[in-house]
Design a protein that fits this description.
Blueprint lengths: L1 E2 L14 E2 L3 E3 L2 E7 L6 E2 L5 E6 L5 E5 L5 E4 L3 E3 L7 E2 L4 E3 L4 E4 L3 E2 L15 E3 L2 H9 L10 H10 L9 H4 L3 H4 L1 H5 L8 E6 L2 E7 L3 H15 L1 H5 L16 H20 L9 E8 L2 E8 L2 E8 L2 E9 L2
Parallel strand pairs: 5-8
Antiparallel strand pairs: 1-2, 2-4, 3-4, 4-15, 6-7, 7-12, 8-11, 9-10, 9-14, 10-13, 15-16, 16-20, 17-18, 18-19, 19-20
Length: 315
């Protein structure tokens, strides 16, 4: 496998992470990441709970685990019956049993008519097209601050130009969830590189495979699947291998896989210097915002080692 640190420059040590063979589903390419695990981090679905939405822009989360720090994923959003749907602008660190009110959340539906039914409650990650703007808005109160950008994305996708993200997340959910079934989450996988078309889209790394498995659907279907859905390529028949035996066929397959890996990794942007800003800390964990070049996002480090990363194409 290929080392991740040869392709991504980060202010933490990436030397233990390795890239696997690329998988492709339409315009979305996923490269699995394996690497060192950091046990004891509370996963987002089974441990982190949405307590309430206390009016527009105010989202309260609770780390219900009896022990362990929760890393609130960057740009996580919640669908809740009887309250407007919101997404967070920043990741966060929460101790066991801690409850926190986030007052800089973005409301992602501009009017009450967008409420969803209770059976449709789930969490998502903001689509790639909205992530750079949402990161800029961290710490700034104002529930409607993302509505115009949501409206622009909807218009680009030939949907009504409104600040209603559910026009994509729910009305296109059946299409978007196909990416989950067409891409395979591998045993022990704790991260992935994502490409849309032939462009780098994002790097997601979790503390351990369980955490990443709980983020798999929101990332594949919504964070990166939305952009890929809009760029679905025409189906082109593959050229047959010129093999006359099983051994020759296996050799052709190995060569094709190697060529595919080389081709996909050539889509990575050139490593650039990045700037980091510490946002908060919990014990030895440090949450940083990363900007610079074509990259933006946040990561969590501990003693110079990476624990969590959500980095995406900023341009």
């Amino acid at each position: 496998m290929t080392r991740l640190d040869t392709f991504v420059r980060a202010p933490v040590d990436l030397s233990g992470y390795r890239l696997g063979a690329p998988q492709r589903a339409g315009a979305l390419t996923m490269v699995p990441v394996h690497g060192p695990e950091r046990p004891g981090i509370v996963p987002p679905r089974s441990g982190l709970k949405l307590n309430r939405v206390a009016g527009y822009g105010n989202v309260e989360l609770h780390n219900g685990a009896p022990s362990g720090v929760a890393i609130v994923p960057l740009h996580i959003g919640y669908i809740q019956e009887g309250a407007q749907n919101h997404a967070l602008c920043s990741a966060a660190l929460m101790g066991a049993g801690e409850t926190r009110m986030f007052r800089d959340a973005c409301c992602v539906q501009a009017a009450q008519g967008g409420y969803l039914e209770g059976r449709d409650q789930w969490f998502f990650v903001l689509p790639l097209e909205l992530r750079a703007k949402a990161l800029e808005l961290r710490g700034r109160e104002g529930y409607s601050k993302l509505w115009q950008d949501i409206s622009t994305v909807n218009s680009r996708y030939r949907l009504p130009a409104r600040g209603h993200l559910e026009q994509i997340l729910t009305r296109q959910r059946a299409v978007l969830t196909r990416f989950r079934s067409r891409l395979e989450l591998l045993p022990g996988q704790l991260g992935a590189l994502f490409f849309v078309g032939e462009r780098f889209a994002g790097l997601e790394i979790a503390p351990d495979p369980r955490y990443f498995a709980e983020m798999w659907m929101p990332l594949v279907c919504f964070a990166y699947g939305v952009a890929a859905w809009q760029q679905e390529p025409e189906q082109v028949a593959a050229e047959p291998f010129a093999a006359s035996s099983l051994a020759e066929l296996r050799a052709e397959l190995e060569r094709e896989r190697a060529r595919a890996t080389e081709r996909v990794l050539s889509w990575m942007p050139a490593p650039a210097e990045v700037r980091t800003t510490e946002e908060e800390r919990y014990l030895d964990l440090r949450l940083h915002t990363v900007t610079g070049g074509e990259l933006a996002g946040q990561l969590v480090g501990e003693h110079e080692r990476l624990v969590y990363a959500s980095l995406f194409a900023a341009a």
